[in-house]
Amino acid sequence: MDITYLKLSNGQWVYLASTLDLRTHQILAHQISATMDTKLVVTTLQRALSTHKKPNY
Known about the structure:
By secondary structure, the chain is an alpha+beta fold. It has one domain (2-51). It is built from one helix and three strands, in the order βββα. Strands 1-2-3 form a three-stranded antiparallel β-sheet, with helices on one face. The mean pLDDT is 93. InterPro entries: Integrase_cat-core, RNaseH-like_sf. Residues 1-54 form the Integrase catalytic domain. Pfam families: rve. This is Transposase.
């Protein structure tokens, strides 16, 4: 899981959460939110788990 701060052209800050497959370096899921909270992290992780198979390693 990685969280990156992004500044928009209007000056507002948002948070980009992404889940990365460490073996393939593929982004499995991502989500943008105006707040950095547990909901952002949990939702991003749930998306990754629902759309990708459990790794074999």
